[in-house]
Predict the structure of 3-isopropylmalate dehydrogenase.
Amino acid sequence: MSKRYRVVALPGEGIGPEIMNVALLVLDCAARLHHFSVQINWALIGPPALAACGNTLPQETVQLCRKSDGIVFGAVSQGGLLELRKQFDLFANLRLVRPSPFLFHCSPLKTEQLQSVDILFVRELVSGIYFGPSGRGMDSNGEYGYHTMQYYDWEIRRIAKVALRQAHYRQGLLTVAHKENALPHIPWSQLVAEEALMFPNVVVEYMLVDNLAMQLVMRPQHFDVILAGNLFGDILSDIGGALVGSVGLLGSASLNEDGFGLYEPIHGTAADLAGKGIANPLGMINSIVMMLQQWEEHAAANLILQAQDQLLSQGYRTADLWYQQAGSAEKLVTTQECVEYLIDAMENIFQSVWSRN
Ligand code: IPM
Ligand code: MG
């Protein structure tokens, strides 16, 4: 019996629907070649859901997600996403930054600084300042707004364990982002150090987040796993976009304790690109790769990654990666073409492996 997976697709808005449509063709191809099946249910979230049913996170969407093996998410400008993360307690957000040698020239950093960079951001996703008490008020000094950064110690401990486990299976270095010189009541360093006693093979270092931001640009090769709270992780991981050459390439997985997850590109709605057919679908596709890895469909995940390497090595570039250089053999492609080439490459690689065996 081949495996059957149920996936909820939440395209959202902006470039979300365009990249979702084509990325699901890639998933479909991977499933066909590797003999598993994926049933897709489409649902609404964010402003399109608000327009259709008066709520950015409709109950029907939540119910469908509850019955699924994974959620794939495009982008929303506001509303629904934070609630969805909270609803399913998707506290562990993983963002992998591994610049492709074929795209080193797309990054403002020098090639020598980018070689073998391989960073995993582990971002806490359902607490901190995005979820603390907030509001607007007025007192004798005038009108004001507030958002509160609040963390239970157990919330820090559980994300620390995820990051430590990742570091244990990777290169064994964990860098903890904190700001204890200004925010002393949220003791990331002490709590992570306590959890780290269970991981004697992991070296843990603690870095003030402002310094960490600079170090990420100055010497990205230093890092292995970076652990950060919600706000700092959001900001730091976008630096990853500069390292790989475009934020359009980066995918993410947001997981709960049971390993259930939501998979989304980190770039957001990119409203200026929407409807033009030029958005980079690789961030969405790389999120789907993370879903396949989470399902332990490693052969299917590797096939997509290999095909992506081939596509980039042959010079196919969406607009965000295209720099017209004299004498360059790079070919500008649309979202649709990018995926057509990717699927061709998947089929060819699969055929050539099959004919060798
Ligand atoms: C991200 C995004 C979201 C976040 C926004 C859209 C709320 O920036 O996933 O990085 O801040 O978490
Ligand atoms: Mg962000």
Q: What stands out?
A: Residues 1-97+246-357 form a domain with the Isopropylmalate Dehydrogenase fold (CATH 3.40.718.10). The two ends are 23 Å apart (CA to CA). Residues 335-356 form the longest helix (22 residues).
